[in-house]
Amino acid sequence: MDCGNQGMGEETELLLYGADRSQHVAETIRPALEKGQIVLCDRYADSTVAYQGYGRNLDLALIAKINEIATGGLWPTLTFVLDMDESVALQRISQNRTGGFDRMEGETIAFFQRVRRGFLAIAENEPHRLRVIPGNQDREAVFAEIEVHLKRLIGE
Q1: Cα–Cα dist 145/156, whole Å
Q2: What b-and-e string marks burial along 131-144, b requiring 16 or more CB atoms within 10 Å of the CB?
Q3: Distances from the Cα of 147 to the Cαs of 127, 133, 153, in angstroms?
Q4: Any idea what the Cα angle at residue 139 is, between residues 40 and 53, rounded to 5°?
């Protein structure tokens, strides 16, 4: 995310994410699914609910409508939420960045607390689709836990 867009309105941000998602679904996700491929996607419509709905306090009903239009009703079979304390997450991001935080990452801890609550609320409301994975584990443990769920999903 471009750090130069600090003054972007919250509704503009929401609509831009919706437009980008719509294009991504049309160009990449649907064609892959139509070919029988498995699609892995980082940050789909649940992220909009968590970041713009819970984090930015925008209207969840409006976000649901935008997500419905943007996705054409296409929702993941399985979504992973890597859950960890917000300060630990930001510390890990900063360790992997050379140029500092981007516009979203530069938000307050309170913002990320709301986002985290949003993801956990979605997971609580849709336990059939979302799996919460403790993200404070090392990478190998996180991967192993995800692998168990994926193998279950594909029938291995």
Answers
A1: 14
A2: bbbebeeeeeebee
A3: 18, 11, 10
A4: 55
Against a cut of 0.70, is the pTM above it?
yes
Distance, in Å, from the CA atom of 67 to the CA atom of 86, rounded to the nearest integer, reads 25
Residue 69: which of 13, 25, 115 has the closest Cα?
A: 25
28-79 confidence digits (pLDDT tens): 999 999 999 999 999 999 999 999 999 999 999 999 999 999 999 999 999 9
**Contact 78/131 with Cβ under 8 angstroms?**
yes
Nearest in space to 80 (alpha carbons), one of 37, 36, 130: 130
Amino acid at 30: R
Q: Where are the alpha helices (DSSP H) in 1-126?
A: 10-24, 30-34, 45-48, 60-71, 86-95, 109-125
